[in-house]
Amino acid sequence: MANKFIRYELKNGAEYASVCLPMRVDGRKVNKTENLGRVLDKQQGIFKNRERGVFRYTLEQGYQDAPAESHAMALKPKGPERLILDFGDVHVLHEYLKTTPYHAVLTSLLPDQGDTLLALVYYQILASGARWYAGSWYEGSYARLLLPRAALGSQRISEFLSVLGDEALQRRFFCTYLAKQFPAETVHGLLLDSTGLPNSIDFPYTAYSNHGGQVSVETRLIYVTDRLSGMPLYFRYVAGNVIDVSTLKATIGELQMCGIAADYAILDAGYFTEDNIKALHENEIAYLTRLKPNRKLYKQLAAAHAQALQHGGNLVSYNGRAVYIKRVPCTVTSGIDAFAYIGIDMLRRSYEMNAMLVNAVEDDLGPEEIDGNLSKLGLFIMISSEEIDTKELLPLYYARQQIEQVFDITKNYADILPLRVHGEDTFRGHLLLCFIATIICKRLQGELDAKGVNLIGLFKELRNQKCKVYDSLVVVQEATKKVNDSYKALKLKSPDKIPR
Q: Coiled-coil annotation: which residues (predicted)?
């Protein structure tokens, strides 16, 4: 033990270390050398190398895990520290987050790794590309001073995503998030839909999917959104070959376990089956859904009512379009009655009619066949457990567009694709990180829309505001008019200086 020693040497301006371990081989005394890597903190014995990442080594105790705050040392540049940093985007996002319920949720989720969580969320929103580059972004951003304990080395991020993917942690997140975002007594109208996440990850949730006629290798991501606020409530995922109809019961069950009470659900046609209607009925959840044309009930209702739809008493207007809608009672399944809404969208019908008639002439169809096809053009049928005024039907159903906006934010703002993870734990952690980024972006975009401000444009302008770093003070550079306008859009003010 007494003969062990650590050797230090300078390479390219940085200090590196190795440990010399005397031993005997075939009776001869030899020195075995083990590389410790770059020195991060000589006094505490903190080192970093490719094999172990960041770790502690002492002659007395050997290799040990490094304290959490030591991982941030690995991101310090080897050369001179950057003294001018990108400021406005991170500062505004952080100050805005503190005005929302999410800041308390995130800081309580992983108290010892809170800086890493916030830094990754900010990177997810403000930057783009693989998380491999998160460390480089962090070095040049005010996030480095704001969140000094963040560990954004590539290996550390992978380990952190695995922690974030823990089922117990995710359950705790949703319970805390929902309690903060919505009052306990809130009863939600639900919007449910799924989207494909193409990937080649070797785990059970990757499978061939045939969704809407498109075949791909993917995992299906299911989002549940609150109908009134448009805010995401929950997510879950299934294998790519699991069809939507078979996911509704489990989704409702998981929502109930998170304390989400639902009184209404608006569903895409892919969720309609007799079993699902029974499940909604048993859980006392009213619903509105669309029928696919291949359904037996659709064919029966169309045959009985399509010919007589175009009557003045059935005419409504929606979004500048003339639509005929007729409400009739129907039986969905044994013992469960509902209302069917048979409609014809006249604009869609006109588009389809010309193409159909041209094809009818070319295919030499008979008059009866042509008339039969004409009656189906622009036709749609919806089923609801509730008696709805026909004027209110389409505005209610197209509230579903809110969930499409959420998917758009998830893919375009929260950078959920492409998937660059390995294994289920890191995949789950990635999805939660994207969900967190999505709820922040959704709330923020909702406030900016009324002011005609684009979210991406706002942060691009703010990134141009820099700050200069001194030992005891951060001096914020003057804001341009566009930067000032961005601050005003969120009712914030640019600071002049910030003590370190």
A: none
Contact 487, 494 (CB under 8 A): yes
* Same domain for 382 and 301: yes
Burial class (CB in 10 A: 0-12, 13-18, 19+), 354: exposed
Q: Cis link prior to 418 (omega < 30° from 0)?
A: yes
Residue length of the chain: 500
> Any long-range contacts for 331-338 (C-beta under 8 Å, 24+ apart)?
332/274, 332/277, 332/297, 332/383, 333/274, 333/277, 333/278, 336/277, 336/278, 336/281, 338/277, 338/383, 338/384, 338/385
Q: Is 467 within a domain?
A: yes
pTM (2 decimals)?
0.79
346-362 vs 367-374: helix axis angle to the nearest 10? 160
- Same domain as 80, residue 61: no
Residue 117 belongs to what domain range? 74-156+451-500
Q: What would the pLDDT profile of 324-344 be if each residue is shown by its tens digit?
A: 999 999 999 888 999 999 999
**Span 287-324, pLDDT tens digits:** 999 999 999 999 999 999 988 898 899 999 998 999 99
- Residue at which a domain ends, from 66, 97, 116: 66
